[in-house]
Automatic annotation (TrEMBL):
Keywords from the named record: Signal
Lineage: Eukaryota, Metazoa, Chordata, Craniata, Vertebrata
Descriptive protein name: Neuroblastoma amplified sequence
GO MF assignments: SNARE binding
An example Gene Ontology biological process: retrograde vesicle-mediated transport, Golgi to endoplasmic reticulum
GO CC terms, sorted: Dsl1/NZR complex
Signal peptide location: 1-21
Organism: Nothobranchius kadleci
């Protein structure tokens, strides 16, 4: 109830209910993310409950607002919101996954959600993003592979290592992925 009365949450709610049209909505979702981010380092920083409520408003309003909602949930650092994020990722269609931007992929990796997304349509994009932006993101591919292996995703861990070490695509077989785990981890 308190989060619903927060002036920033009320503003987001009002904007979402008054603004219509797909172009307006896409821009509006990003504007809400920008608004919440602008409060991060101020005395008006939104508590997790308000971020949760704002993300739920975005999710309820339109499917096109999934990315802004996921961005807010990832940046919150709240375990419940991260679990909700994983649920949204694992329910994502291939079409929705293919439209995810680089910022969202980076936020998901920063939040440590690679292992939890293995069964999703977003996993190939996440792992490719990790490999292609490793320097700027600062992600440890070998540690991610070890986490994948520890979670029982041995083929995915091996494939990630093969790609990281520069193996040719023709060598990416199930058996080679499992073999490199013994050798490299």
């Amino acid at each position: 109830a308190t989060s619903e009365r927060n002036p920033w949450v009320m503003l987001a709610s009002l904007l979402l209910t008054r603004c219509q049209g797909s172009e307006v909505t896409l821009d509006l979702g990003q504007q809400i993310v920008t608004m919440v981010r602008s409060l991060f380092n101020t005395k008006h920083k939104l508590p997790v409950q308000c971020i949760r409520h704002t993300a739920q408003l975005l999710l309820q309003h339109q499917p096109s607002l999934l990315q802004p909602a996921l961005k807010l949930m990832c940046e919150s650092g709240d375990e419940q919101l991260l679990q909700l994020t994983l649920g949204q990722i694992n329910d994502m269609s291939a079409e929705t996954a293919s439209s995810c931007d680089a910022e969202l992929l980076s936020l998901l990796l920063d939040a440590g959600l690679l292992v939890g997304s293995v069964s999703s349509t977003l996993y190939p994009l996440l792992s490719a993003h990790m490999l292609s932006h490793q320097q700027e993101g600062g992600w440890d591919v070998e540690r991610a592979a070890a986490e994948l292996m520890a979670a029982g995703h041995r083929p995915e861990a091996g494939s990630l290592l093969l790609a990281h070490r520069g193996a040719h695509q023709a060598q990416f077989t199930f058996n080679s992925a499992l073999a490199v785990l013994k050798q490299w981890l």
